[in-house]
Design a protein that fits this description.
Two copies of one chain form a homodimer.
Chain A (H helix, E strand, L loop, with lengths): L5 H7 L3 H8 L4 E6 L6 H14 L4 E5 H4 L7 H8 L1 H7 L5 H20 L3 E5 L5 H9 L6 E6 L3 H7 L4 H6 L21 E3 L6 H14 L6
Parallel strand pairs in A: 1-3, 1-4, 2-3, 4-5
Chain lengths: ~220, ~220
């Protein structure tokens, strides 16, 4: 809707390839997955920092900027949109709601990559099928799944927000790794050992991968 | 979740200001609103084309890239996610579904602007309250509401997809301007006369506005 004629429209569309030439790098989705406190967000932000310094255009999607807006819960929606709306559209933590949470994040990451950006996502995303569905919305090579393979003992020892403690005490239900499964990727593009190396070293490993695969320049 | 320590996290976060310095322009949301066939998408794509040529980083959100993924309808979700999921999360055209449609688009546009990009949206977005809710998620100056004020007679004469014809025949219900209201903005940042000037001229008017308001360089 809104375009005068199809010809006119296509004449002025900026193709993804043109955007990538302007940016000097390709667009893609870097999808971190792993347990809570495995280091996903820290590595994602370190990577973003290093790439941005190098004039690579990135955007990080994580719980901080997604759960408060795009994927807001019932409570958050109630104030601005009223009860009926909040009940209908608020996302909770049921299986189906988690599926929708990941689906939307995947759709947004895809939009960023279409805009020629490197979208970096940092969500536990414990279920294989949810991650594979996102992969299937992208072309081969555009979805870079990175398993942050940090032993649960290390994650639990870190426990920056006391979530493992609460889950062990039964105060948090359905917590990944405790009473809900984490399904590791079968053939991820990369595995990072988050219990053995620093975020700085791990972010550099990702950058080497991006260079090797001609997503960014050497 | 996932960050080792708060200190480490903050150390490596790329601020929006840093992104804007790297990009050489500010991030914002340019929100086109107007009747179907008023010219929103054509102007949006022309603007995107001109800005991209000038190394300004943009992303266009419109029906083409949003209704098929982020805001997919029931039918589209059914294939990949099954019936229950599709019924729960598919977006239709009811009042509440349209509200959610605009809410999500606003949230994504906001994410793009946070990443230092110029997000350009082209949706009828007929209701004032929906647009104002998006405005309220952004800081003053970051939401640039542009009313594409094309007379309905002109839109109806264009009717590229035959939607007005169907609406007049009663085959399409709730069509904006025919049997559903369009609420023009009370004080939009810009008004473009889509029935009088070419998309090229109108896109240039927007660029002048962006320069005048120091969002892009002169």
């Amino acid at each position: 809707m809104g375009n005068n004629t199809e010809v006119y429209w296509h004449e002025h569309m900026v193709s993804r390839a043109e955007r990538e030439v302007l940016n000097g790098h390709k667009g893609c989705v870097i999808w971190f997955t792993g347990l809570s406190a495995s280091g996903k967000s820290t590595i994602a932000n370190t990577l973003d920092h290093k790439l941005s310094q190098n004039r690579v255009h990135c955007a990080v999607l994580d719980g901080d900027n997604v759960r408060h807006s795009l994927n807001a819960g019932t409570q958050m929606l109630r104030e601005n949109h009223g009860n009926d709306f909040a009940e209908r559209f608020g996302l909770g933590f049921s299986a189906i709601d988690r599926e929708e949470n990941i689906r939307r994040i995947g759709a947004v990451a895809n939009l960023f990559s279409q805009a020629g950006m490197i979208a970096i996502t940092a969500f536990i995303s414990p279920y294989r099928i949810d991650r594979d569905r996102v992969r299937n919305t992208l072309l081969p090579g555009e979805f870079i799944e990175i398993f942050v393979d940090t032993p649960i003992s290390v994650c639990e020892a870190r426990d920056p927000k006391g979530l493992y403690k609460k889950a062990r005490a039964g105060e948090l239900k359905g917590f990944t790794g405790i009473d809900d499964p984490y399904e590791p990727p079968v053939s991820p593009e990369m595995v990072l050992f988050g219990g053995e190396k620093t975020p700085d070293v791990l972010a550099n490993e990702v950058i080497s991968f991006l260079k090797h695969n001609a997503i960014i320049e050497k």
